[in-house]
Amino acid sequence: MADQSIISALVLGLIEGLTEFIPVSSTAHVLLAGHFLGFESPGNTFAVLIQLGAILAILLVYFTKLVQIAVAMPTSAKARHFVLAVLVGFLPAAVIGALAHDFIKSVLFETPKLICTVLILGGIVLLVVDKLKLKPRYHDVSDYPLSLALKIGFCQCLAMVPGTSRSGATIVGALLMGADKRSAAEFSFFLAMPTMLGAFTLDLYKNRDALNFGDSAIIAIGFVAAFVSALLVVRSLLDFVSRRGYAPFAWWRIAVGIAGLVGLYLAG
């Protein structure tokens, strides 16, 4: 295992954790960084498998709340409704992701120019939405109707195009359909748990024959880096969004997309 691969895995893991739960597309950042670092991963599996670190980070942050929900489910209709809403929101990605997995990994993940372009377009959309004078009707994720959860779930499917951002698609969709900024981000967190775990499991199964011990060690390094950096983001994101909105992330997307296109042009 070369020192360069270790360093690359560490850098990519940090990028994954720092960008997974903000609307800038962690997959785009990891793929582009991996492209310019010359990092090779069978079937681009590394980019998906290190997400387990980010999953565990959000599970740790929300552990107490998850336990409270689980304990309350037998007696609380509100708790059961919330769990059902998250599962309903997860359903579109589960079906479409399973059906389109090979196309997504072999075509979309291998097109850096597309990723950069989508980053820029997504940033523009985020700027526009952030400036809209929306009147929120939903302020608590526990009160989201099942119909709203399903629509947000379909919005999440847009993130199958790298550069779109899973959290960006779900947050923008929720905002446009009446959620406030804080609850939109929080529902995106909860929806990430089954979605990312499902993507991790499917990718691990699909690429089980291509992985070896060396790959496992590299993935473990990226996993730990993603876990630590994601913890920092999840603990602070909701307060940041409540104060500043999403414009800073929009400008970051645009800057990275432009920088990526310039880098690709200069590299031929």
TrEMBL record:
InterPro entries: UppP (IPR003824). It holds the Pfam family BacA. Bacitracin is thought to be involved in the inhibition of peptidoglycan synthesis by sequestering undecaprenyl diphosphate, thereby reducing the pool of lipid carrier available. The gene is uppP. It comes from the Bacteria. It is a multi-pass membrane protein. Keywords: Antibiotic resistance, Cell membrane, Cell shape, Cell wall biogenesis/degradation, Hydrolase, Membrane, Peptidoglycan synthesis, Transmembrane, Transmembrane helix. Its EC number is 3.6.1.27. GO terms for biological process: cell wall organization; peptidoglycan biosynthetic process; regulation of cell shape; response to antibiotic. Belongs to the UppP family. It is found in: Cell membrane. This is Undecaprenyl-diphosphatase. The chain crosses the membrane at residues 43-62, 82-100, 112-129, 187-205, 217-238, 250-267. It comes from Allorhizobium borbori.
